[in-house]
Structures are given as structure tokens and as C-alpha cells.
Amino acid sequence: MNIKSGKTSEGNAERRVRVVVAERNPFVVSALREMLECDGRFDLLGVVHSGAQFLELAAATQFDVAVVGWKLADMDGADLLTEVQSRQLGVRITIFSNDHDIGILKQCVRLGAQGYCFQFDDPPVIFETILAVAHGRICIPYIDINKVNDTPLSRLTVRERELLAVLSDGWTNLQIATRTGISENTVKYHLKNLYDKLEVRNRAMAVALYSSEKRRTSKSPIG
Predict the structure, then answer these.
(1) 222 to each of 47, 77, 109, 219, how far by Cα in Å?
(2) What is the pLDDT of residues 158-196, one digit of tens each?
(3) Listed residue (188, 10, 61, 12) closest to 21, CA to CA
(4) What pTM did the predictor assign?
């Protein structure tokens, strides 16, 4: 892990977008490093290879945007985005993916990624995505608006939404069982079905998805 100070001196360096990269593939890292360092708009602060390293860096270093590979040494992008939300790190993330699966793109958006681009995109597209995210905008590839609105949460029943709400309040399986009058095994069965519907693997990811949805729906319309 090679990290430069997040502080910049006055002048040209101060106007540059401060970038960190999290990517496990050394060839991708090398290409990104060369692209960013040859462009005067960016200041590459450092590169990490694992999610744990990135989370440590995000808590200690100021930067404008992170470029994060979908598969890191110890976790994937969904796990990382979940941890970022859980720890309330407040960093802006562009996922840099080599997979064209629209399901991954939708999952990243639901979990709070502000940008998404592909490793095979032309450099100008990658640069503009990073710049947009660094300046507070969301920049993702085109998706059919009907597919965006069709989130896993929209397909939940009222009872499943209630279950998700108490999960977000920190209820344990035993508490859910006691207060609803069902067995813990039945609770586990319902939770498994809930995770399958949400396309997540565990409680933390389900809660992060629920929290992200609540934040979006609670925003008042402009105008």
C-alpha cells in the first residue's frame, strides 16, 4: 500500500482531483496509474489491493473520489459498499468493472455507488466519470428507467418490509421470534427468502440496501 498525503499545497496541485484506487489486478492498476498520472487534472494519492486496506485509508485520508474494482483481494464491490455505508465514511466511489452484467450495475447503484464505468471504456469516458463523481454528480451507464425503478425492495410484501425494518433496528433472530410468536428456525427461513429476493448474501447487506432506499425516498422533490 503506497499512499501519499491527502493534503495539497496551494497552486496547481490544489486544483487537481484527489484519487485513490482499489484494485487487485496489477495490470489494471498499472494502466490506471499511467492514465491518471499523465493527465494534469488528477492527483493519484495511492493504490490499495484489498477492501480492508481501502476502509482503513478512507477513514484516515481525505480524497475526492475512489476508483474501486468490482473484485478486490478480500471482498467484492457489494461488500465494500455495504461496509462504507455501515461505517458512514462519506466517500464518493466509482466502481471500475470488467463485467457487463447489468445486475452488478443495479446492485452498485442500490448500495450507494455514485459512478460506474467499465475497464474497456475509452479513457475519456473513464476520466469524465471520475470527474463527475468527484464534483458531486452521479455518473452511470444508461439503464432502462423501468429497470432502475424495479428494485428488489419494490417486490417485497408488506410483511417482508416489516421484517427488513426490524432488522435495520438491530433486532436479533431471537427477538424477532419472541415478539412474533414463531420459532427461530422459522425466522431464519423467512430471512433466507428475504435475502434471495433482495439479491444479497447477509443481514448487513440487506440493511445497507434498506437504508439506501430510505434515504432516496425521503428526499423532497425539487421545485
Answers:
(1) 38, 31, 21, 9
(2) 888 889 989 989 999 999 999 888 899 999 999 999 999
(3) 61
(4) 0.64
Cα dihedral value 112, 176, 189, 105, nearest 10: 0
Contact 36, 42 (CB under 8 A): yes
Phi, psi of 11 (to 5 degrees): 110, -150
Asked if residues 82 and 112 have their Cβ atoms less than 8 Å apart, the reply is no
Rg (the chain; Cα; Å): 19
Angle, helices 102-110 vs 203-218, to 10°: value is 70
Interstrand relation of 93-97 and 65-69 (parallel, antiparallel or unpaired): parallel
Cα–Cα distance measured from residue 73 to residue 52, given in angstroms and rounded to the nearest whole number: 9
**Residues ≥6 apart with Cβ < 8 Å to 109:** 116, 140, 148
pLDDT single digits (tens) 36-72: 999 999 999 999 999 999 999 999 999 999 999 999 9
Strand partners, 139: 115
Residue 34 identity = E
Task: Report CA-CA distances (Å) from 29 to 37, 68, 72, 193.
Answer: 12, 10, 12, 38
Residue 151 has pLDDT above 80, yes or no: no
Amino acid at 193: N
